[in-house]
Amino acid sequence: MKIILIKKIGKNRYEILLENEKIKTYDTVMLKYQIALKKELSEELVEQIKEETEKAEIYEKVIQFLNKKLRSEKEVRDFLKKQEVEEVEELIERLKSQGFFHEDIYIEAYIHDRFSFTIDGPNKIREDLLKQNFPFEKVEKAIQKIDKKEVKNKLSKFIDKKMNLNHKYSEKYCKQKILEQAQLLGYSKELIESILEEYKLDHSVILEQEARKLYQRYSTKKSGKELIFFLKQKLYQKQYPMEDIYNILEKLSREYHI
Q1: pTM greater than the 0.90 cutoff
Q2: How far is CA 7 from CA 42, 56, 74, in A?
Q3: Residues 77-115: pLDDT tens digits?
Q4: CB 53 within 8 A of CB 29
Q5: Are 242 and 236 in contact (CB under 8 A)?
């Protein structure tokens, strides 16, 4: 089959017009098979060009994927799996030889971005990097470079915001919830607790509001000692100090003649 026309259709793509069909391919394939106008192509060579074009197309997709941001080898493998690529190892080795996977650079950049642009702490960042199959030693070495003062400052801001938003819980309950949340975000229990120790909440107003709300809800269903005992249990579940609970319930008992 003779090549009748060669037309450029993109940055590195060409369309080859043969006597009975069209082939869209890449410049790398054109160069490999020395495609030129009026050249004769056998059916076997046409099939080879098509196969090579499929490989080039996958390669171009991977390059676009890599150009968006730094990617780990695992991310690229997952991407190729979604594309249902068979020759994964061959492509990975080609990318490695071209210098696309620099573990140290990727790890450093990943930690910088996660710590700078998310609320995540060192433990979570470490865990996510290890899930990408990076060596523990390299990950740990990079994690240890994170400024500990910055970690504390970032966590302090998070805790301060959460404490200031508390309008319904006891100090103990609020601190326990913040501890759980901060640990899930990747901060150490010791650091969280050391910062929480600096906070003291006056929950007397919150406790009274909660007690009155419970009284209004249940006073039509219970009365007397049964109501007081029930309110005491409900408030204790919210981790208010027992002494404060007794005091507010005595106040309500006098006020509502329970």
Answers
A1: no
A2: 20, 18, 37
A3: 999 999 888 889 999 999 988 888 889 999 999 999 999
A4: yes
A5: yes
